[in-house]
Amino acid sequence: MTARPADIATYNFAYLDEQTKRMIRRAILKGIAIPGYQVPFASREMPMPYGWGTGGVQVTASIIGPEDVLKVIDQGADDTTNAVSIRAFFKKVANVAVTTETAKATIIQTRHRIPEHPLTAGQVLVYQVPIPEPLRFLEPRETETRKMHALEEYGLMHVKLYEDIARHGRIATTYAYPVKVEGRYVMDPSPTPKFDNPKMHRSPALQLFGAGREKRIYALPPFTDVVSLDFEDHPFEVQTFDQPCALCAAENVYLDEVILDDHGGHMFVCSDTDHCEKRREQGHRGHLAPETPPALEKTEPAQ
Amino acid sequence: MTDEPLLRVSALSKFYGSRIGCENVTFDLWPGEVLAVVGESGSGKTTLLNCLSTRLLPSSGTASYRMRDGQFRELYRMSEAERRFLMRTDWGFVHQNPADGLRMTVSAGANVGERLMAVGDRHYGKIRATAVDWLSRVEIDEDRIDDEPRAFSGGMRQRLQIARNLVTRPRLVFMDEPTGGLDVSVQARLLDLLRGLVTDLGLAAIVVTHDLAVARLLSQRMMVMKDGRVVESGLTDRVLDDPRAPYTQLLVSSILQV
After folding, report:
1. Which of A102, B55, B63, B153 could be cross-linked to A115 through a Cys-Cys bond (beta carbons 3.0 to 4.6 Å apart)?
2. What digits encode the pLDDT tens for the residues B108-135?
3. Are B179 and B190 in contact (CB under 8 A)?
4. Other CB atoms closer than 10 Å to residue A234's CB: what's the count?
């Protein structure tokens, strides 16, 4: 009523109104009770376009409290547009502390990666999901895919893997690799690289998935069995890289290819920027690392 | 052989509002027997077939099927999960238009292998070997295994559809005008193939057709339908050589003589 003229419009804590948050929390609780099951929810318009993480933002907004510490990553990086914008958004509308350090965060909203640093009990990983239905490209009818989930008819999922092997000689699906949750529901782990699939298995952290455009929420409670689908004679394998990170020399992590110039120069670096910086602080040096690592702001407290 | 029928149908009726789809159809189907259902279009053949294959629920009447364990089960009292399981293991359904029964965007091999994977087969090499075997049995070259059915001719698509249905060794196959829309030489080869497969595998089949020649070639017994009711039934040769009902006489005499 008597807002100071200099103020911008005042939002409810974490942007969403309390009724909406209750509705989303109900969907989350149902999702946790039935691991891997896609719970429909009344997705709201958010101040960002579909495809930019409207589902993840709504889930985060519904579970965040003033004491939480938020980390947002986009393809593993803390410093890309999507991550910076969402972090700034929550800093503004919820006034929470934000961080880039995986170990310090209580909520990590992610677009398509799971941090390299192992997650611990009490942490929540919120995924932004574009297409939650793993059967969608094989069966376009939603009525039919829901029935297939209900009756556990998942033969079709293996048809896709069969096609991969028939065409490429191996399972060529590298991201959004379908998993079976607790021996029941087949789930799309969002377009994370299949490199991250094993990290989902029996993770001590709570994992929540929000798809804003498709209006679905699903969840993996801590210590849930998550098994990647495969054939007996073509078992599931993660990507391997034949060289370590060019900056921090890390091995057995997921690497991004970075183009350096117009003459074919490129390097492979950690996709997880926090992990890479931590290692460089500890003195690990890749063959392309600069002399002095840049000092980066890590954590900003709530104001 | 057993002395019990495979399928018992009793007083089956399907109404669309006040209109009759099919009315009061009763018959038994025995293992290894091919039953043809003939009649003009709109006579209720396809409605009957859809009711029997549980794609449609009838308005009244019962149908019970003898499962592999020898027990009769009432089809319309089964849960949807059980019916769908039956549909992809013990039964087959060959559509008139192969595009309805095939996945047009996945390879021929995956089309054949889908049922195997649906019942839990998880060995790529074995699935592929089975697919190769079935493609050869329906006279499709092995080197077409990775092609999509979109690249196949009408006759090949229909043969692929048959292979896809027979791969789990069903005991009962429903066919809706399996040779409709194919030219006569392709029809003849397909009929030849079907007849061979039916005899080799001891399949029971219910074939809906308006083509009396198809009925004569494939079936041992036939039912003639008109306006949703069965007007005559009996051994195929008897019905075609000595039709008794006036409508059957008309139907038989309408065949064009070349």
Report:
1. A102
2. 999 999 999 998 899 999 999 999 999 9
3. yes
4. 18
Find the length of chain B.
Answer: 258
Question: Tokens representing B152?
Answer: 């196949």
Contact indicator for B38, B45 with CB cutoff of 8 Å:
yes
State how far the Cα of A62 lies from the Cα of A24, in Å rounded to an integer. 7
Q: Is there a contact between A247 and A274 (Cβ–Cβ < 8 Å)?
A: no
Counting DSSP H helices and E strands in chain A, the numbers are 7, 13
Helix (H) or strand (E) holding A55: helix A54-63
Could you say which of B81, B84, B110 has the minimum Cβ distance to residue A166? B110
- Asked if the Cβ–Cβ distance from A232 to B123 is below 8 Å, we say yes
The whole-angstrom separation of Cα A64 and Cα B245 is 78
Q: Say what the ipTM of the complex is.
A: 0.84
Location of structure tokens 């005008």: B177
Between β-strands A107-111 and A124-128, what pairing exists: parallel, antiparallel or unpaired? parallel
What is the amino acid identity at position B56?
L
pTM above 0.90, yes or no: no
End-to-end CA distance of chain B: 41
Instruction: Find, in chain A, the residue whose alpha carbon is nearest to that of B148.
Output: A163
